[in-house]
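Trying the structure run again after the queue cleared.
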Amino acid sequence: MSKPPRGHEPPSRTVQRYLSTNDADRSLGQNFLIDSLPISKSLEFSESMGLCNQSTVLEIGPGPGTLTSAVLAIGAKVIAIEISPDALDFLESEISDPHLSLVNGDALDVRWPDGLTHVIANIPYGISSPLLAKIQDYHQNSPLRGVCVLVQREFGNRMVMKTPPKDRGPLGISLWLDFDCTVVLDVPRSSFRPQPEVDSSVIGMKPVSRGHISEEERVRIRALSSWCFGRRRKKIRTSLKSTPNPVQRVLGISRLEWDHRVESLERLSGAFSDLIQRRPEELEPESWVKLSRMVVEELDLPE
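Done. Tokens:
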């Protein structure tokens, strides 16, 4: 165990005190950190992304508040969304700080306030994907300075596309549009109480600008990659020859127009033919940008 961050008591004591009067709700994904190291590393990464006493941090599912206290110790404002009434009661009794705002509700349903600078959270595993989608949507309208989340390790590997082609998929492709994702720390299951059945990872998400990609292209890239990865074992050519309804809707064209476009591209462009002979996990993110642009305009194609 590392030293508790910022002079606070070890998280194991806080968690023990909470569990002495409350049961962990497995249906809410309540597995509480008893190890200080993931908290310290999350703060270190966030501070490298500008976290300071002027920041406004969103925390999702604070539980007993071990991470909450550490962020407050920096002087940052924390808005913590917690769905569990027991956890809310505990936080209200444990932490008295004018910089803390507690919100009772589901983070997927509650409107996130304007002006957030960072998101730092131990994300409930069962809602990891929709929460990341909400983070991306928020970031598009109100840019964040940094995001640091603790997630299931296998999920984290897919976020960072750690070992291509195995970990490459629509999740990582989508996140790549807004962030450079890195593994900050691998966290064993023994670092939690109650202990989950899987290991975890702290994932840092550094905002990046993909200025060469328009908003329309973002939508097409997501639709195209999701469609093809849904048929992972098939070559992209086979997936495009079937009826890609999401892609057709995005482009606003009929099935007949789509078939004609794919046939023309395959005939006219060697680059297109090369890309679609591969399986989706073999394509790097920039290749999805290229493929998306090709299916929009079949003239003046690169050979």
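The beta strands are 32-33, 56-60, 77-82, 100-104, 118-122, 146-152, 179-187, 192-193, 200-207. Worth checking whether this holds up in the mutant runs.
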